[in-house]
Amino acid sequence: MNPLELARARPGPAFTVEFDGRRVPALPGRTVAAVLWEAGVTSWRSTRRGGRPRGVFCGIGVCFDCLVTVNDRPGQRACLVPARPGDVIRTQEGTGHAD
Amino acid sequence: MRTDLAVIGAGPAGLAGALAAHARGVRVTLVDAAPAPGGQFHRQPASGLRAARPQALHHQWRTWTRLHAALAASTVRLLTDHHVWCVERVSDGRADGFVVHALLGPEQERSVELHATALLLATGGYETVLPFPGWTLPGVVTAGGAQAMLKAGLVVPGRTAVVAGTGPLLLPVATALAAAGVSVAAVVESTGPRRLARYGGALAGKLPEAAGYAVRLLRHRVPCLARHTVLRAHGDDRVTGVTVAALDAQGRVRPRTERFLPCHTLAVSHGMLPHTDLATTLGCRLDGTAVAVDDQQRTDVPGVWAAGEATGTGGASLALAEGHLAGRSVAARLHGTPYTPAPAAVAARARLRRAADALHRACTPPAHWTDQVTDGTVVCRCEEVTAGEVREALGLGAGDLRSVKLLTRAGMGWCQGRICGPAVAGLTGCRLTPPRRPFAQPVPLGVLAAQHRHEPRAEPTPPPAEEGPS
Ligand SMILES: Cc1cc2nc3c(=O)[nH]c(=O)nc-3n(C[C@H](O)[C@H](O)[C@H](O)COP(=O)(O)OP(=O)(O)OC[C@H]3O[C@@H](n4cnc5c(N)ncnc54)[C@H](O)[C@@H]3O)c2cc1C
Ligand code: FES
């Protein structure tokens, strides 16, 4: 049993987004974090000081650990932002700005 | 936009409050940051996933269908995707009121205003997680966070999980993960049955619920390790397992009881803290870390009510009772009629508050949790400040959270100390005091600049043009 089967989900057709140059399938309604989790990806940021990998922590927009760059906009909370067809998602290095 | 009552937060407390006030003739606007109402407890699958059986991941589904139907049949104006970043008190000479400022999601680049005569803060709370070596590894998530991702995104973080910490959230989360096909290697709860039994009387009402979860966990063959704690999470770029150990009666790790549990996910929780930022900017008094309210759910600022987790942790049923009483009180006040409490809600509130209080005292983190926090452990996840740096600040004479923050930067990052606050307080022995945050969430500079441009002509405030979706 997986959660989609458990809740008898009949999502609309999947679309693709790009994550660090590779194509990843996405279901309509899912956040960027959910799309990446489904693809087996758990980290999409490296920290400013230690360069350590981070992903979802609180899952509800409070901790800001899940920051990611979407369509060249850094600092998006992956757990809140819905994935949209054609999104270009990139691992955020530090603040995501060249500084 | 103008309304009689602005309710901030569409969880159980906000929904009950909005419906109770609306039923008594109050014009209500219900505002929530999420794309749909429900809050944490009744969080629904994203509509695009078209789930035919969302109740498979829910409890008290009938309550939700009742709330949802009542909301749909009402004229309560629902504003979803509205992230409230600030609420101000205004006076236009005739009457006092409030302006609610909200960023429109998910882009959050544009801010809209809502003018209201009364305000109900039903903003809920967020989880506390205390640090341990390895807790910043990807795959370590809060228990509620795993639950939220599962309920809304119908997605799980990995094939095997350990659910750990303390408190009433662990069992429902472990049950939900197991039902969704995750192999739950163990539930690791630091409180033991004897400690729970000490509060048996007040907790009696909670027993059937707990027993229900226990049965389901047995069915999924999930072992429960009571009076155990996670010592560390292992892994390089993501978690690959955890070391757990037994605790003695004093909350110290018992020697030679360590064992390794392989897992892809560690879902951990040590309790909840209320969202109080909007209340503190309005000047509402806090009681410890929660918004202080009277028996009608009124804060000490006239025109401002609060209900649910914002006023203290206690679960969805308590939030419903408090929200309902708040809605009645608002209606009475706006109509100038006497407040008539609903006896059933008053009784439920009293009983559930007693149970919450007992759970709170029983489910405290292990007394000596800081012993496990090595100097190299990151405490402030945003600014990457280690326990060693925090301890050093203490040595330099820092006596409260503010000085520790100034010396180390712990709490200065994006989350504004929401996550590291309890940890820094525990490590330094300082009291946990919610800092005054000017805004409830980050605000784009452009939005702030636009607010400033408004200010010179703001007295008296002209009714603004309707903005944004309604
Ligand atoms: C991540 C998480 C998961 C949880 N899962 C469970 C569970 O599975 N089972 C369980 O029994 N309990 C769970 N809880 C506990 C839960 O908080 C309560 O049971 C119950 O939902 C509390 O109701 P409430 O109405 O007080 O707050 P909530 O249900 O938390 O509702 C508060 C609402 O306010 C909104 N809000 C907050 N701040 C703002 C703002 N500034 N602007 C706009 N909107 C805002 C939020 O989006 C949210 O919808 C969870 C808690 C958390 C933090
Ligand atoms: S996971 Fe905490 S903000 Fe997204």
Report what the structure shows:
The complex is a heterodimer of chains A (99) and B (470). Chain A is mainly β. Chain A has one domain: Ubiquitin-like (UB roll). Chain A is built from 2 helices and 8 strands. In chain A, a hairpin with a 2-residue loop joins strand 5 and strand 6 (73-77). The N and C termini of chain A lie far apart (46 Å). Chain B has 470 residues and is of the alpha/beta class. Chain B has 3 domains: 2-126 and 273-341, FAD/NAD(P)-binding domain (3-Layer(bba) Sandwich); 129-270 and 364-369, FAD/NAD(P)-binding domain (3-Layer(bba) Sandwich), CATH 3.50.50; 373-428, Arc Repressor Mutant, subunit A, CATH 1.10.10. Chain B contains 14 helices and 21 strands. In chain B, strands 1, 2, 3, 4, 5, 6 and 19 form a 7-stranded mixed sheet that branches. The N and C termini of chain B lie close together (9 Å). The model of chain B is unreliable at 456-470 (pLDDT under 50). Chain A: It holds the Pfam family Fer2_4. Chain A: This is (2Fe-2S)-binding protein. Chain A: Keywords: Oxidoreductase. Chain A: It comes from Streptomyces composti.
Topology (elements, then pairings):
The complex is a heterodimer of chains A (99) and B (470).
Chain A: H1 3-6, E1 15-19, E2 22-26, H2 32-38, E3 45-46, E4 53-54, E5 67-70, E6 73-77, E7 88-90, E8 92-93
Parallel strand pairs in A: 1-7, 3-8
Antiparallel strand pairs in A: 1-2, 3-4, 5-6, 5-7
Chain B: E1 2-8, H1 12-23, E2 28-31, H2 61-73, E3 77-79, E4 82-91, E5 96-104, E6 111-121, E7 125-127, E8 140-142, H3 143-153, E9 160-165, H4 170-179, E10 183-189, H5 193-198, H6 200-203, H7 207-219, E11 224-226, E12 228-235, E13 239-246, E14 259-262, E15 265-269, E16 272-274, H8 277-282, E17 286-287, E18 290-291, E19 304-306, H9 316-335, H10 343-362, E20 378-380, E21 385-386, H11 387-395, H12 401-408, H13 421-428, H14 445-454
Parallel strand pairs in B: 1-2, 1-6, 2-3, 6-19, 8-15, 9-10, 9-15, 10-11
Antiparallel strand pairs in B: 4-5, 5-6, 7-16, 12-13, 13-14, 17-18, 20-21
Helix pairs in contact in B: 1-9, 3-4, 4-7, 9-10, 11-12
The complex binds flavin-adenine dinucleotide and FE2/S2 (inorganic) cluster (FES).
Keywords (chain B): Oxidoreductase
Domain BFD-like [2Fe-2S]-binding (chain B): 378-425
Region (Disordered) (chain B): 448-470
